[in-house]
Amino acid sequence: MNEDVKISVKFLTTLRSAHQDVDGSPIPVDAMTEATEEYQRRTQEVADLITSYREQGRDLHELDGHPLLQTTLESMERFRQTSGAARDALRGNLDRMAAAIDDASALMEEIRRNRRERELSRKRFNEGCPCRPWRATPARPD
């Protein structure tokens, strides 16, 4: 029983530690949201610019070197970097949680094994006990 208590404490410590590790490695959600919104806004601006050039009958080659294209490419690069950082943080957190779950599962299996061993020991004891006072005691007459 004492061993199960020690295992349970280790189980809780493992999960707490994993939770703290994940909390200490947050996913840059705000940066990801900003980069996504900027990327979407810039690509829409480029689409609108292209549509405007086409409606005016202008050659799209005239867009070469347009400042909006450079700004959009920079926005795409920020989006790529930010999404990569978010993906890496998420992957790291998932790896930490998976390792903690593996550890916790092994600890739970040890507790189950200990319980089965105790039940088997109790059963053997009860079956092998020559004196069973809880069964051998006759009822008292009143």
- Class derived from helix and strand content: mainly alpha
Count of helical regions: 4
Strand percentage lies at under 5%
Ranges where pLDDT stays below 50 over 5 or more residues in a row are: none
How does this structure look, described?
The protein has 142 residues and is mainly alpha-helical. The longest helix has 62 residues, at 67-128. Helix 1 (2-23) runs antiparallel to helix 3 and helix 2 packs antiparallel against helix 3 (67-128). The protein starts with a helix and ends in a 6-residue tail after the last helix. The mean pLDDT is 85. It has one domain (2-126). It is built from 4 helices and no strands.
Task: Supply the key terms.
142 residues, mainly alpha, 4 helices, single chain
Give the arrangement of secondary structure elements.
Layout: H1 2-23, H2 29-55, H3 67-128, H4 133-136
Helix pairs in contact: 1-3, 2-3
Short description:
By secondary structure, this protein is mostly helical. It contains four helices and no strands.
